[in-house]
Amino acid sequence: MKRQRQIDALDRRSDPWDFIIIGGGATGLGTAIEAAARGYDPLLLEMHDFAKATSSRSTKLVHGGVRYLEQGNVSLVLEALKERGLLQKNAPHLVHNLPFVVPNYDWWEGPYYGIGLKLYDVLAGRQNFGRSKNLNRKETLKHLPTIEPEGLRGGVIYYDGQFDDARLAVNMAQTAVEQGGVAINYMKVTDLTKSHGVVDGVQAQCQETGTEYHIEGRAVINATGIFTDTIREMDDPDAPSTLRPSQGVHIVLDRSFLPGDSAIMVPKTDDGRILFAIPWHDRLVVGTTDTPVDEVSLEPTPTQDELDFLLEHAQRYLVNDPGPEDVLSTFAGIRPLVAPPSSSGEETSEISREHQLHISNSGLVTISGGKWTTYRKMAQDTIDQAATLADLDERSSVTRDLHIHGWHEHADQFGDLEMYGSDAVEIKELMSDDPSLESPLDDRLPIRGAQVVWAARHEMARTVEDVLSRRTRSLLLNAQASIDVAPQVAELMAEEMGRDQQWVEEQVEAYTEVAKGYLMDPSAVSSSSS
């Protein structure tokens, strides 16, 4: 997957595209795959990098949503559990089964959560990842050796999925292209075009060259997540706001704070949201918060209150109390929640994660809401409606059984390259051909020169941030180490992409500025978390 080839395909096109999809996150990429796999001609345009915003900042779970059961939203749980099973089948190199333990400190928690998780098992049916069961105190400590033992009565274990969100997004872009679609990052849609009051295309600008494009499409699909209302206002300046954005923050700790293979799930924190402590890439991810926000941004930043909240809860449940000096990275993501006007007083943690599909009077198709786990179903529903709107031949969905790029049934054999799946073979060959690309660039990070070259050569990485944040996840695993390694990454990319020394210096400076927002300032922590 090379960006110039995608640009060339755009330049060659004289007929209108069947679909112009705006947005390169989970929903937009899924929609591009859905359309291309059916034999349609989709064009996907992303203003920054694939999964730059919300889709790379999740809690890293592929799940049905245990808490939605408590809300009584059984239909959403059923749909998500079904999609969870399909995603594990179609991307086994990225989606893994993970045991979760709910620690019980009150007498009623064991039976209460035990019954709820039994229902979760039943709803999963044949696609269940494992049967839940109650654990005694000794069994709980075996699964969670560093859980706070004082007052611990036992626990309940259940099974769900975890994944690497940004890596899946990159593989989805590759899948869309392999199926015949065109996907371009750093291509910003600046306006919608209309004929006789009907949306018939977009104006777009390449963010690298400044080249302007007028692109025609039979249907235009708005799949921009937190920027949904921005595109809707291009269509209708008076369009009412539909988003109720909520910020979720995570902190990343060393794996020693929770060794073993199990995650912790706390069903109800002080803000009413579920809290997770999840093993991920040999680190521990703790999150998430739920804070309503007024403004959306490509680079949201955690508030001090959110960071205090997470540290306080981590200290409450872990024997070794993590302090601010132990936080390797922090990251914030904004959820594009969609709620009707009647829910204006509702807590964001209570707003449904079901997706909504809307077609405006001028024909703009907007898909919003939803969650990572259900992206495929969202895409299927979107193309079903958009194809009818565009008066295209009806074609059935085939994505239930479509393998995502990188599919490999036994990718664990590739060790720390497992997340590349079948591509790991070629990355190993790259290291064999050039041994200088084999050694880790920094002992604190699982990143090698070969991965940098591969990202620039085959995964449309255009910047140092693309590589360190989304192609390798280094920014989340250790923000300071990623800053330290940025000059090496820039040099490798410059050699691969034919860039000069000025580009290298500009890239390092730009990346450092972004990465500083992921560092935790120990001096800023309030006394409540000490």
Protein topology:
Elements: H1 3-12, E1 19-22, H2 26-37, E2 42-45, E3 61-62, H3 66-70, H4 74-90, E4 96-104, H5 109-124, E5 133-136, H6 137-143, E6 154-162, H7 165-178, E7 182-184, E8 187-195, E9 198-206, E10 212-216, E11 220-222, H8 228-235, E12 246-254, E13 263-266, E14 275-280, E15 283-287, E16 291-292, H9 304-317, E17 329-335, E18 355-359, E19 365-369, H10 375-389, H11 424-433, H12 449-458, H13 464-471, H14 474-477, H15 479-497, H16 501-515
Parallel strand pairs: 1-2, 1-11, 2-7, 4-13, 11-19
Antiparallel strand pairs: 3-6, 4-6, 5-6, 8-9, 9-10, 12-15, 12-16, 12-17, 13-14, 14-15, 18-19
Helix pairs in contact: 2-7, 2-10, 11-12, 12-15, 15-16
Distinctive features:
Helicase, Ruva Protein, domain 3, ten-stranded mixed beta sheet, 19 strands, FAD/NAD(P)-binding domain, 530 residues, 3 domains, 35% helix, globular, alpha+beta
Task: Tell me about this structure.
This protein is α+β, with helices and mostly antiparallel strands and 530 residues long. It folds into three domains: 177 residues, FAD/NAD(P)-binding domain, CATH 3.50.50; 170 residues, D-Amino Acid Oxidase, Chain A, domain 2; 108 residues, Helicase, Ruva Protein, domain 3. It is built from 16 helices and 19 strands. The strands form three sheets. Strands 3, 4, 5, 6, 12, 13, 14, 15, 16 and 17 form a ten-stranded mixed β-sheet that branches. A six-stranded mixed β-sheet has the order 7-2-1-11-19-18, sandwiched between helices. It has a three-stranded antiparallel β-sheet with strand order 8-9-10. β14 and β15 form a beta hairpin. α11 crosses α12, α12 packs across α15 and α15 runs antiparallel to α16. The C terminus is likely disordered.
